Amino acid sequence: MNPWFHLAGWLALAYLVGAIPFGLLIARLKGVDIRSVGSKNIGATNVFRCVGKGWGVLTFLLDAAKGLAPALVFPLLQGQSGLPVPQGVEGSFGLLCGIAAILGHNFPVYLKFKGGKGVATSAGVLLGVAPAAVGLGLLGWVVLFVVTRYVSVASIGAAVLVPLAGWWLYARAGIFLPVSLTLLGVLIVARHAKNIQRLLAGTENRFQFGKREAGDQRSAVRDQKSA
User: Fold this and answer.
1) Following DSSP, what letter does each residue of 66-81 receive, concatenated?
2) Among 11, 13, 152, 175, which is most exposed with the fewest C-beta within 10 angstroms?
3) Distance, CA of 7 to CA of 204 (rounded, Å)
4) Distance CA 202, CA 85 (A)
5) Closest Cα partner for 44 from 130, 96, 159, 122?
6) What is the pLDDT of residues 102-158, one digit of tens each?
7) What b-and-e string marks burial along 185-201, b requiring 16 or more CB atoms within 10 Å of the CB?
């Protein structure tokens, strides 16, 4: 069979894995439709706010895992399968599968192509293909979050920092990885367009801890039950 068909099959599988809406599924287990509360986003931050801290962390880990698996595990499986992929693609196979998973998260076929923003899934992919860049991105995320308490600012900042780190760390080995990181960063920033509008308008929610978050979670469940 044509190696391009093999590659297309792996990419389709990676997309379907990335499209699994863990945030939506976890929230449903707690009786909440995450698409109708808070920011209405299926990602970990909204689950954290509206369902519970532990559930939000679990969502983040699962969303990251569905990016890490295609980027790190799929190349191993492909090598063991003996199914060829096109020449010149072998070194970028994990990255291509990771990108497919990110597109699945952002535009999931299961949810009529209305998904999350891809931060956690992108982090998982980067951990598999560019760990040093994701380490710097994570450091930037933490610093920005602590200083501003805006998850969106931290995510946008990391989306800018990771490509810069990619060009610095990996450009000598070729430009495909840095260019891909740049495009992923642009996608993440674009997916935060509404957050940017709220930041400019001064209406973006700062991340709060303690009583307010607990109240938001109870309100979300109460609103769902009364709907």
Assistant:
1) HHHIIIIIHHHHHHHH
2) 175
3) 41
4) 49
5) 122
6) 999 999 999 999 999 989 999 999 999 999 998 999 999 999 999 999 999 999 999
7) bebbbebbeebeebbee
> Which of 102-111, 191-200, 212-221 has the least mean pLDDT?
212-221
List Cα–Cα distances, 141 to 61, 87, 130, 171, in angstroms. 16, 37, 16, 23
Structure pTM?
A: 0.82
Nearest to 98 by CA among 132, 62, 126, 57: 126
Of 121, 95, 124, 89, nearest in space to 107 by CA: 121
Strand, helix or coil for residue 31: coil
Residue 159 corresponds to which amino acid? A
The secondary structure of residue 88, as a DSSP letter, is T
Contact 18, 103 (CB under 8 A): yes
Q: Residues 62, 43: contact at Cβ < 8 Å?
A: no
- At which residue do the structure tokens 């389709």 appear? 12
CB proximity list for 81: less than 8 A, separation 6 or greater: none
What is the residue type of 164?
A: L
User: Domain extents for the chain?
Assistant: 3-226
Token pair, residue 2, equals 């044509």
CB–CB of 60/44 below 8 Å? yes
What span, in angstroms and rounded, lies between the C-alpha atoms of 205 and 223?
Answer: 19
CA angle (114 as vertex; 158, 97 as ends), nearest 5: 60
